[in-house]
Amino acid sequence: MSDAYGAQVYLKREDLQVVRSYKIRGAYNKIAGLSPEQVSRDVVCASAGNHAQGVAYACQLLGIRGHIFMPANTPAQKVSKVRLFGKEQVEVVLIGATFDDTYHAAKAFCDERGSSFVHPFDDMAIVEGQATVGLEVLRDAPNAIDFVFMPIGGGGLASGVSSVFRQLSPGTKLIGVQPLGAPSMQQALQKGQRQALEHIESFVDGAAVKCPGELTFELCRELLDEVALVPEGQVCEDLLKMYNEEGIVLEPAGTLSVSALHQYADQIRGKTVVCVLSGSNNDITRMEDIKERAMRHQGRKHYFLVTFNQKPGALRRFVNNVLQEGDDIIQFQYIKKNNKEKGPVFIGIEVQRPHDVEGIQQRMAAEGFGYEYLNGKQDFLSLLV
Q1: Burial annotation 245-262 (CB, 10 A radius, 16+ → b, else e)
Q2: Cα–Cα dist 63/56, whole Å
Q3: What is the pTM of this model?
């Protein structure tokens, strides 16, 4: 990466934490700072991801009873990891169809018992714990750091790291990174106020937050230089590249900081850069979807809804006159309707070079095939691909 960008690129490997993400830092700091009276009433959190594992492990280390609320549809692998890290100190409560349901159930349980709620990001003790990432970076850095790239979901990590750098390395440019489909902090900073997004793309699940925290918004507004948005397809491409070339296994959110470098290639040349790799809790069953999104982002896979005349030879004409050598049909769905002259066909095509798709579109038009290009319609494609 240093050679590719002409920079000194360093990686802060939070994927190597015992719980495979930085979340143990804030969770441990919050729970360790509770009074004996608070501890006696247990701790509670709501999470389906890395925060749940961090809280569970902190409870085990400190010998404190914890209740981990997770959505009822949480994959069994994630539930078992929480139980593994928490051992006999934690109880997992599976409840709610959505995370909001789970969160409200956890808060109600917390209020009823007088327990301490461990928020995933909007808490000063959590921010302070995540700030230790920044302290370690500055302790280990061989020279002055020009840029730090860090992922943002709710903003706890960015708030903590930025707080440290603004005091100890004020010349460093601090860049938060969010997925393009979940730009909650970027939108909040642009508008000058927090406002929950109506819809978000949840693919980069570790950073897919509808609304940043109240505390973290104020800190990020004061401390960050910029928030960059990265397309999910770019994240997938870089996730696969990190695995194939570096042997580093990352989750999508853990790849965000690396993916932002493409946008800053000119600015970081000759500079010292740190990317925070925030976690590696990636389900292997997602790899096919990740590869699919990466190839679409690279311009190698394209999907169309094509109108065919329901006459013999239509497919042959499409193959012979529209496709060229190297073009490969990877998906084809068609059901003949005898009472109609024309019928829609769902076709996926893999090409050798991104610009090859332009020729396919031109030849379809020339041959009289009406079509709709589907690559930008993720909701539709998710039903078929």
Answers
A1: eeebebbbbbbbbbbbbe
A2: 10
A3: 0.89
